[in-house]
Amino acid sequence: MDMIPDNITSSPEWNLIMPEQPILFAQHHHADYLDELIEFLRIPSVSTQPDHGGDVAAAAAWLARAMSAAGLENVRLIETAGHPILYGDWLHAGAGRPTVLVYGHYDVQPPEPLELWESPPFTPVVRDDFLYARGASDDKGQVYVHVKAVEAYLRTLGRLPVNVKFLVEGEEEIGSRHLHSFITANRDLLAADSALVSDSSILAPDRPALIYGLRGICQAQVDLTGPSRDLHSGSYGGGIDNPINVLGHLIARLKDERGHVLIPGFYDRVRPLTADERETLAQFPLDEAEWLAEAGAPVAWGEPEYTLVERLGARPTLDVTGLIGGYTGVGVKTVLPAQAQAKISMRLVPDQDPAEIIALFERHVRAVLPPSVTATISFGGGSPAALLETNTPTMRAAAQAYEATFGRPPVFMREGGSIPVVNQFAGDLGLPTVLMGFGLPDDRIHSPNERFYLPNYYRGIETVIRYFDLLGSAAD
């Protein structure tokens, strides 16, 4: 992979380029854009909870209407065995103009725990230039940026400088269960020259960033069963192995206290960081004190052989994300529980194979568990890590669009999160992807009080307008 080229972000001449009419239109419609986004956010499209199935469908229908109103054509909801996929396009840019496939998702994470929200999660509220609601940053606000950028062009100039196709799913938060088969079966429909994804963050309100690396992911669940029923701890304690105790010992044999994963073979295929990339990552402007303050944590932690920046984006992880077992109500209950459960999330880096990691995980778990429990191990799917080329026309255009809008060039960074579809765009469709995010690190996505910084919502629309203009101009 090419490392960041010296000339990719230094382009002062682009500060003079401005598709005036679409940007002025967008600037005069901020109030409308806010009202529309608030309406979108009121729909509790929680894909993981069956009782919200109707809400997920309602969010898809709402966005379909908004896309049609913006001027996109052939807008339709495509049913799957789960939640619908939304498609729309505008393909009149002319011969030789590139086609951009815009991807996003309209489903959101569960809002629980509700008691930690300062305002109801599906009653959007603006406080100090932030819009608070579940899905505000991840990903309704960011996907709506693209709809409004298209609308600004079509309402003013009557055309776009590029062709666009929209692919918006309702299952990203549950592993994109039906998206892979849809893309595989619809290569012609989704054919394009590049993909554009806004489902990530920049460094700060005035510090844009382009992501060139994403970690992959594997998710597992371990259910342990000991006795056939809960047992009195006085009568059976010391004679029956407690599944929660067994689970604790298992977790201790998955990862040590310094952050090293203990599964044999887990690191075998990890691509080592080169000296050049370590030098590049060392230049990343992460203020550890500010980062800790934002996280609300006392100290940083992890593999001591690697820097904090390296651990956050370029090293694999294993974390317990949920534990269930025993009595957790008020007071005490003196029983040995019959069952215990752990949810495990593993973030992967190049060149780890999710299927191989899953096999190694299961082999290790079964090897260390005692005969006093039986185990059911299930997996929630996985996706490999992604590394994107930085010295490409689309990346250069994205960097120049950011710089023209924010007044400073973007930083290039590796992101610790995962966007599984990026690999499929490359593998099935042959598309280079640009990850053009507009969220902030402290948007609290997946947590109570999620929010989206409104000035960057509006800057995001202008950035996408400029990006389309640069791609179209390059084809002239």
From TrEMBL:
Coiled-coil regions listed in the entry: none
UniProt cross-references to Gene3D superfamilies, sorted A to Z: 3.30.70.360, Zn peptidases
Keyword Hydrolase: yes
The organism's taxonomic lineage, starting at the top: Bacteria, Bacillati, Chloroflexota, Ardenticatenia, Candidatus Promineifilales
Domain of life of the native organism: Bacteria
GO biological processes: proteolysis
NCBIfam families referenced in this protein's UniProt entry, alphabetically: PRK07907.1, PRK08201.1, PRK09104.1
One Pfam match: M20_dimer
Entry-linked PANTHER family: BETA-ALA-HIS DIPEPTIDASE, SUCCINYL-DIAMINOPIMELATE DESUCCINYLASE
Enzyme Commission identifier(s): 3.4.13.20
Uppermost EC category: hydrolase
A molecular-function term among this protein's GO annotations: metal ion binding
Name of the protein: Beta-Ala-His dipeptidase
Domain Peptidase M20 dimerisation: 212-371
Keywords assigned: Dipeptidase, Hydrolase, Metal-binding, Protease
